[in-house]
Write a structure and sequence with these properties.
By secondary structure, the chain is of the alpha+beta class. Helix content is 40%, strand content 19%. The chain is built from 15 helices and 16 strands. The strands form five sheets. The chain has a six-stranded mixed β-sheet, sandwiched between helices. The protein has a four-stranded antiparallel β-sheet with strand order 13-14-10-15. Strands 1-2 form a two-stranded antiparallel sheet. The radius of gyration is 23 Å and the shape is globular. The chain starts with 22 loop residues before the first strand and ends with a strand. The N terminus is likely disordered.
């Protein structure tokens, strides 16, 4: 964002002529300098404009872009209150928008797999039982509507173009939620800070039924080109983390799709962490009924993450807890457990693994801080140290959190075999992508070897490899722009 005359912490409608990209025009502040815009491919934009005109019979008034992300380390701990370390990727969601005078919201997608959708802008209903693509847009739309307490919203035509592989763990769904939130804010002509937008979109994505923690939305708005971010919560803030120059991060898609809103896997883990927090709090004599997150237990006790691991060893057992045992521990009824603690799609679960989930969360939270410290200290063996932390993370995700799958484990092993210093699943897991730390001078041979070992010979994987195996660098965050 421009630094002269416009706050870097807030969004307004920007105007970029992408072919030349030399100026930004703010609606009320005149012309401001901006580096050449290279985030959006010009031909992609022209194609989107032409498709919009063909679909709606008009020209888009503005465009919104929100990136996907890769989480370098810190898996399944944001919803427990702990810091994570992601970076935005160059792949993104791009939406062409044309406000209309009617109160009709019309959504279309450049991918024919995703059918058109139309609804009134003032009666948004989101079906949690079917995580269809348009429901993610509705989440962002409804989030802005409810934040401002609006009952009458203008309609709009929107054409969505995404190049983030779906259900790959690169946060395509959250990017769409963020894009929709920024679209709605822009149509309304209102302003919010990046932090406010991130928090609204994190909250509103839960309309789809997923009890996420806010990492994906935060990095989508707060990302800056060239740097990863340590994202902290309560309050939300982002700190630059300079990654080692002698290595690159490579994303490899297992080609196993996992839509976290379509199953209960994700929410079961959230509830297991919530229950672990409550049982740990009760064990330590805290006011357990007010506790929701594992970080709150540590904060209340005022001890280190390493000490929390010892508390976990002392207070929890490795065997799964039945619902009845949890109720006995907390002194509540089965009905109170079901209706006051568990989410709707986890109320039928019979057992919960509290020890394993808490062990993962506390150890993973410590790895995030260690990763940042190594990046800051930049010792000669930084790449080796960071790689080992990533390897530890994957083992914990696989064994303690049980969110891996055979294909992800195979892909991680292949990446390490051919030179990755560290490799781990990224995103929710149960499919999706790995992220690997690879010495820059071995990148070409690494990509060729992984291609041959994992993709070649498997026609399904090979057909998708163009968007499945690539090196990436930290990209920029969400933005709005007009065509001059």
């Amino acid at each position: 964002m421009p630094s002269s005359g416009v706050s870097e912490d807030s969004y307004s409608v920007l105007s970029c002529f992408l072919e030349h990209g030399s100026q930004v025009v703010h609606r009320s502040m005149g012309i401001l300098p901006l580096k050449k815009v290279t985030i959006i491919n010009h031909f992609r934009l022209l194609k989107l404009k032409e498709m919009f005109n063909s679909k709606f019979g008009s020209t888009p008034k503005f465009y919104v872009r929100a990136p996907g992300r890769v989480n370098i380390i810190g898996e399944h701990i944001d919803y427990c209150g702990y810091s994570v370390l992601p970076m935005a990727v160059e792949q993104d969601m791009l939406i062409a928008v044309g406000p209309v005078k009617t109160q009709t919201l019309q959504l279309a997608n450049t991918d024919p797999l995703y059918p058109d959708f139309s609804t009134t802008a003032n009666n948004i209903c989101i079906d949690k039982t079917q995580p269809l693509w348009h429901n993610y847009f509705l989440c962002g739309f409804k989030g802005i509507q409810e934040h401002f307490g609006l009952t009458q919203l203008p309609g709009m035509n929107c054409l969505v173009d995404g190049n983030i592989p779906p259900s790959s763990g690169l946060s395509s769904s959250s990017a769409l939620v963020c894009c929709a939130g920024l679209v709605t804010l822009t149509v309304l002509g209102m302003r919010l800070s990046k932090v406010e937008l991130a928090e609204i979109c994190a909250k509103s994505e839960r309309y789809i039924g997923t009890e996420g923690g806010g990492m994906d939305q935060s990095i989508s708005f707060l990302a800056e080109e060239g740097t990863a971010k340590l994202i902290e919560f309560s309050p939300l803030r982002a700190t630059d983390v300079k990654l080692p120059s002698g290595a690159v991060f490579v994303i490899a898609n297992s080609c196993v799709e996992m839509n976290k809103a379509a199953t209960s896997h994700f929410n079961v883990r959230v509830m297991e962490c919530r229950l672990a927090a409550k049982v740990l709090a009760k064990h330590k004599g805290l006011q357990w009924d007010k506790v929701l997150r594992l970080e709150e237990v540590q904060s209340e006790l005022g001890i280190s993450l390493e000490e929390m691991l010892l508390v976990t060893e002392d207070a929890l057992h490795a065997e799964p807890y039945s619902r009845e045992e949890i109720c006995k521990c907390l002194g509540i009824s089965l009905e109170e457990l079901r209706t006051q603690i568990l989410s709707p799609n986890t109320q039928g679960e019979l057992t919960f693994k509290l020890y394993q989930r808490a062990k993962h969360v506390y150890s993973e939270a410590a790895r995030v801080l260690q990763f940042k410290q190594v990046c800051e200290a930049a010792p000669d063996n930084a790449v080796q140290l960071l790689g080992e932390l990533m390897n530890q993370s994957h083992r914990s995700c696989r064994d303690m959190y049980e969110c891996s799958c055979p294909e992800l484990d195979q892909l991680v092993d292949i990446c390490r075999k051919f030179g990755a210093k560290g490799s781990r699943l990224t995103g929710a897991g149960w499919g999706g992508c790995t992220v690997s730390l690879v010495p820059a001078d071995t990148l070409s041979s690494f990509l060729a070897s992984v291609h041959e070992a994992y993709y070649q010979g498997n026609m399904s994987r090979l057909a998708r490899e163009k968007h499945s195996l690539f090196a990436t660098k930290p990209g920029g965050g969400a933005l709005v722009f007009l065509e001059a």
